Amino acid sequence: MRVLVLVLVGIGLGCLAGEGLVRLGTANQKNYVIEMWRYAKLLKRPSDDPAIGHEHVPGASARLQGVEVSINSLGLRGPEPVPGRPAVVLAGDSMTLGWGVAESGTLAGQLARRLGDDVQVVNAGVGNMAVPQIVAHWLEIRRRIGDAFPVRTLVLLPSSRAGLPQPAGDAGWLVRHSELAALIATFWAQATSGAAGRDGMIAAYRTAWTGAEGQARIARAFDRLAAETRADGIRVIVAQMPDTNDFRDYAFGFVTGITGREAAAHGWDFVDLYPLFAGETAADFWTMPGDIHPNAAAYARIADRLAPLLAAPAS
Prior knowledge:
Largest sheet: 5 strands, parallel
C-alpha cells in the first residue's frame, strides 16, 4: 500500500511539474493549440441550441496569440453595432473571426474602412464551426438583432475546414482546466484521426465535402439559410475562403465546386477567393509560422475584392 501511495504521489507531482513547464513554455502566446484552448475557455460557452454547439460569451475579452479579442453584447467580435445603421454581416468560422489578427486588420475591420460610415460591418465569425453551425448561429444572431438595425447583405465565408463535422460534447474537466491535458488530447486526436499529413488531410476533407452524408448536411444548411434570408429580404453572397495550406499545388477545388453550385441553385452571388492568391507562397499570408489563419495582408486582398460587390446594389 505504501508503495502504491508513493507511486501515486510521484505521478501527481510529475503531472504538476509538467503542467507548470507547459504553462511556462506557452506564456509567450505563440503556441497555437494552447491559444485556441484559451479561446474556448475564456471567450466561449455552450449554446442552448444544439445545432449551434458553442458561441461567444457576450461582453468577454481576452488577449489571445498576442492580439486583443473583444466580444460585444451580441456575442460577436468587434464594436457594438450602431442602432438603425444598415449592416453587412460576415458569417463563418475562425477565418472570418480574424484569429490572430488585430481588430483593425480583420476582414470586418478592413471592409468597414472601405465601405464608409453609411454601412456597418458585423463580424459573426466563431471559431471551430461547420457550415450547419454557421447558419444556425447566424439565425440566432438575426433573432437577437430584431429591428435594431437592418441587415442589407449576408456574406457567407465557408472555409474548407467548415465542411468537417465538429465534435459534440464536453471535452471533460481535466482538458478544460489543464494545458498539459489539452496538448495531450489534441496530439492524440490528430494521431488517431486518420488525417495525418497532406494526403490524409485532403482525403478527410474530400470525404466530408463530397460524401453523400456531407453533401446532404451542407445542402440542408444552405436551404435553411435561403428560406430565412428570403423571408427577410436579405441579399446573400457566398465567398469561398481559400484553403491556406498551399497556394501553388492547390487541392481544394472540390470545395469551391460544391459551394459554387449551392450558391447558384439558390440564386446567390458567388466569389471564389482563391485566384487572389494563386501561385503565391502560402506562408506569407499566415498569422505566424505554423498557424495558417489569414493575416492582415490576406484580408486586405479579400476586402479589395468584396468591397465593390458590397457597395453595389444587388443584381
